[in-house]
Each structure stands twice: as structure tokens, then as C-alpha cells.
Amino acid sequence: MTHTVRTQVVIVGAGPSGLLLGALLHKAGIDNIIVERQSGEYVLGRIRAGILEQVTLDLLHEAGVGATVTQAGTPHHAIELVFQNQRHAIDITGLTGGKSVTAYGQTEVTRDLMNARAAAGLTTWYSAEDVSVNGFDGPHPYVLCQHEGQAKRIDADFIAGCDGFHGVCRASVPAGSLQEFERVYPFGWLGILADVPPVSPHAIVYANSAEGFALCSMRSLTRSRYYVQCPLSDQVSDWSDERFWDALRRRLDPALAEQIITGPSIEKSIAPLRSYVAEPMRFGRMFLAGDASHIVPPTGAKGLNLAASDVKYLSAALIEHYAERSDAGIDAYSDRCLARIWRAERFSWWLTNLMHRFPDNGAFGQKMQDAELHYLVNSRAASTALAENYVGLPLDFAQH
Question: Which member of 117, 251, 291, 321 has the greatest number of CB atoms within 10 A?
Fold first, then answer.
């Protein structure tokens, strides 16, 4: 026997985008249920990005969960670029009229949202199995799943697909209704998380070296996330901690390399890089948001921030639907999101191409990369373009 419940919006996926959407809808008095195929512990265990744009911070405050990030997050006003054994600072705050980014891990964002949802007594079904989305091309969408040993059905007005790149929502779109754009990069990132202080007071250090790319990223004043470019054929088991730290040092300038404090890794993984967009993002009464619709290489620190802006557009559209009986925001949702997404995709693609060593670049390609890096750090106009994209374009930028 199937247990049936009713809500206004059913959200598939309890990552930060689904939880943030749920919080914003709840604040507006819109009922919602979240269905997640993984356990809550698994969701919290995922290690992801940690650089938040001001747009994302504003949304967390709007959702009522901004106090912790204000207290524990670390604002940053510059990034550093390393190439040809020299380090160059880009004053992102000075170049953008006072804007900055904040170092605060995605795990912490997720925990804040989970705690707030639990405290509000809102319904989240973790460890749901056989999740399917149905009827979204008509007036009565619903979600089926197995939860706690029982068949369950959620009837809703709308479905929000916040279930990531491998989720069920995009996979359920009818064949021929989706256009996909993809670039797969010929390397991966080997990343480690370690409880060591950051090597630089700046949130991010990007390095372009003869051995490949490296990145130093602050998670907090006592925790750091470091990456090195590696072949896709590599396995995590190929990389001892000692080998990783040696490779990282060789890719930084000598002064910075000497400052690294090493320690045992508490997480180590290899991530492939891709740029991906699926269009459109609305299918009748189902909407895609975040990684369900788009992926960016992590170079530009845009993944979580793009998901947050999707959620802002979607929550505003749903609030407008219920409060004003207008579907203007719903009808514009996909176009508004995609205009912003493609700008972030461009920036992430550009920065990835600028900072990594590609196997087919050749001598000419390497000279062009070097020339562009020199131009970037010596031109205020070029540095400003980097800075304004890094801190995040305004939400209404796409409309100008």
C-alpha cells in the first residue's frame, strides 16, 4: 500500500541547493518536502568547494542561516597567481569597488541548512530508494519512492530537481527535449584536505608551472584544501602524502613553497574536470537547478555559487506564483538562469585554459599562455575583468 502525502513543492536532492531552496520557500510560507537518496551523514561527508560570493552570502542570510558564516567565514580581498616562479597578487576588492569573497566550506553550508531545517521541523526523507519524478508535463506532478520500507507518493504543484549531475530529474526528461553542451578536459585534479594552516593569507593561490597546475585554497585558519593537476589515468593510491607535498612545492614559487606546513591528509580524491550545460532548465512543472543542469570546472570557484543563483531565481519565481498568481518568473526562469550560467561557464573555461598545462598546447600555445598571464597581471583592465568575475557578477547583470 502506497502512503500519499501532499505538498506545494517537492524538492529532489538535499545538497546545498535543495536545502537552500527549501529554506527560502519555508520563509515565504510555501510548503515543501525534500527527498534525498543518500543518508544525511553521506551528504555531510561530501567535500566540495569553499569560496562563497556575496550573492550566496546574501541568500544564506535571506534564508535565516547566515549568522554562522558571518562568524566563522573568512573574508578575502585578493587572490594570487604564480607563474615562471613568481607570485602576483590581484586586489579583487580594490578592483571591484569593495567586493570580496568568503572562505567557508560547502560542508559547513550544508550543515547550517540541515540544522535549520531540522529545527523548523520540516520534512526531509533521507535514504529514499527508487525515486522517480512523474507527471511533470501535466498539471499534477508527483514523486514516487521507497522510504523506511514503505512505498510513498508525494503529490505537488511543482518539482525542483536539485539532485546533481547523476540525479533522476534530468535523466527523466523526454528524449529530444534537452540540448547538452560539454567539454571534457584531458586531466584531473588530485585534491587533499588537511588540518594545516593555509600557506597564504589570501583565500586562493593559482599556480601555472612546467609540471602543471596547482591550487592552494583556505577552508579555515586551521584547515586547507590543496590540489595538483594530474593525468586522468592516475589513481589515488599512486599518490602518497609525501609525493603530493613534493609535487605541490615544485609548482609554487620558492618563497611560498618554503612556507607550506604539511600534515596527514584527512581526505584525498581525484576529480575529473568538465564544462557542461543542459538546456532548457524547465520542463512543464519541473525545474532543474545546480549541478542537475550545469557543471563548471572548479578553477573559477563557481559551482556552489551558480547553484545558489539558480535557487534565487527559482524561489523568487515560485513565491511570485503563489503570492501574486503570476507565472512571469516561472516562464522566465530558464532564460534568466542560463544567461548567468553561460557567463560563469566562460569565466571558468577561460581560467582553466589559462592556468593548466594541456598536452597538445605545443611550444606556440605555451608562449601564448605565458603572454596572456603577463598581460593579465600588468594590465589594470585585464585584472579588473578577472576580479569582477571572481567575486561574482550581479544577479541582474544578465538582464543588462
Answer: 291
Catalytic residue among 16, 152, 298, 312: 298
Question: What is the distance between the alpha carbons of residues 131 and 137, in angstroms, rounded to a whole number?
Answer: 17
What are φ and ψ of residue 148, in 5° steps? 55, 40
Pairing state of beta strands 3-6 and 150-155? parallel
* Residue given cell 584531473 in the structure block: 188
The active-site residue, picked from 126, 185, 313, 390, is 390
Residues 297, 308, 339, CA angle at the centre, nearest 5°? 70
Q: Are 267 and 193 in contact (CB under 8 A)?
A: yes
- DSSP notation for 7-22: -SEEEE--SHHHHHHH
Q: DSSP character for 379? A: -
Per-residue cell: 27: 520563509
- The pLDDT score that the predictor gives to residue 400 is 43
Average pLDDT over residues 94-103: 94
- Angle subtended at Cα 129 by Cα 127 and Cα 134, rounded to the nearest 5 degrees: 125
pLDDT at 222: 86
Is 26 one of the catalytic residues? no
For the record, the C-alpha cell of 2 comes out as: 502506497
Question: Percent of the chain, pLDDT > 90?
Answer: 87
Within 10 A of 232 (CB to CB), how many other CB atoms are there? 12
Q: State the Cα angle at 249 between 246 and 253, rounded to 5°.
A: 160
Per annotation, catalytic residue among 77, 202, 268, 302: 302
Q: Which residue has the higher pLDDT, 220 or 289?
A: 289
Domain boundaries, the chain: 3-74+102-181+275-358
For the domain covering 3-74+102-181+275-358, report its CATH number. Answer: 3.50.50.60
Q: What is the pLDDT of residue 200?
A: 82
Question: Which of 220, 165, 182, 179 minimizes the C-alpha distance to 198?
Answer: 220
Catalytic position from the list 104, 126, 185, 206: 206
CB count in 10 Å sphere of residue 368: 12
SS3 253: coil
Q: Rounded to an integer, what distance in angstroms lies between the CA atom of residue 230 and that of residue 239?
A: 10
Check if 76 is active-site.
yes
